[in-house]
Amino acid sequence: MVAHDIKPLDMSNFLLNYADDATLLSPQNSPTPVELEMAHVTHWARENKMSLNLLKTVELVFRRPNVSGDLLPPALPDINRVCDTKLLGVYFRQDFNFSKHVESVVAICNQRLYLFAQLKTQGFGIRALDSVFNAIVLNKILYALPVYFGYLTEGHKDMSRRVLKRANLMGFAYYGYDLDHLNETSQYKLFRRSRSARHCLHHLFTVKPRPPGVMHLRQRWHDFVLPNIRYEFNKRHFIACALFDYV
User: Fold this and answer.
1) Contact (CB, 8 A) for 58 and 85
2) C-alpha angle 110/113/119, rounded to 5°?
3) Where are the alpha helices (DSSP H) in the chain?
4) Tell me, what's the pLDDT at 215?
5) CB 136 within 8 A of CB 113
6) Alpha-carbon distance 234 to 223, whole Å?
């Protein structure tokens, strides 16, 4: 891998590589600003006889909805600052509003439901239709669902529920799938896998220190430290939901 040796300048920043794409995450309180990190990436590319495609590079500043634009950091030179962007198939907005992603998923699923009407006229039975439904519709809804489900409004949840209900009423799905149950199942599976030290999310958990000789009490779902949450908004992300749900 060409990008295997590239590392961020500061441990508080993250440089995530996926195929030929790279994502740089820099928190507000990082000792090394994003400008220096970006210059470091540019220098690394130049040293490795490569060039960054700035036309496909965007900057997204995550912030609270009520933060004034005057308080935002200065924009990076030659890089377009956007309000939302698509990363690994999910639309992220600067205020963690996933309306654009839900609308995109629902639109694609509704288009695919037209295919089921054609398959049904060709003689496909309910079992075969359900298998195809799981493959190209249900999996589309489930993709990254635990990550953004907590941030959805009831209106956007209803949009996904209508897709599931329509598929069931028209005989395209064998079961009447429930969105909340699908999220709970997906959240548990993801949390169970992320407990492994080899999982990419494991570093987000902090194991409780256990002094030697301490009495073992009742068995718990996990031995991670529960985060201190000051704002209601912060309770919605996957890590907080999983830690508090499975304590």
Assistant:
1) yes
2) 165
3) 34-47, 99-121, 126-133, 139-142, 145-148, 154-169, 179-194, 238-245
4) 65
5) no
6) 21
Q: What is the DSSP letter of 52?
A: -
Query: What is the full DSSP assignment across 170-200?
Result: TTS-SS---HHHHHHHHHHHHHHHHTSTTST
Confidence of residue 232 (pLDDT cuts 50, 70, 90): confident
User: For residue 199, is it left (φ>0), alpha (ψ between -120 and 50) or beta?
Assistant: beta
What pLDDT was estimated at residue 1? 45
Length of the chain: 247
For range 185-202, the mean pLDDT: 89
Is this model's pTM higher than 0.90 or not? no
| Distance in angstroms (rounded) separating the CA atoms of residues 63 and 72 | 9
pLDDT at residue 219 in the model: 64
C-alpha torsion angle, residues 175, 177, 178, 182 (rounded to 10):
120
pLDDT in tens, 35-88: 999 999 999 988 888 888 888 899 999 887 776 656 778 888 889 999 999 988
Model confidence at 213, pLDDT cuts 50, 70, 90, reads low
User: Do residues 97 and 66 lie in contact, with contact meaning Cβ atoms separated by under 8 Å?
Assistant: no
What distances in angstroms separate CA 46 from CA 32, 40, 42, 60, 86, one per listed residue? Answer: 21, 10, 6, 24, 26
Percent of the chain with pLDDT over 70: 93
Distance separating alpha carbons of residues 132 and 134, to the nearest angstrom: 5
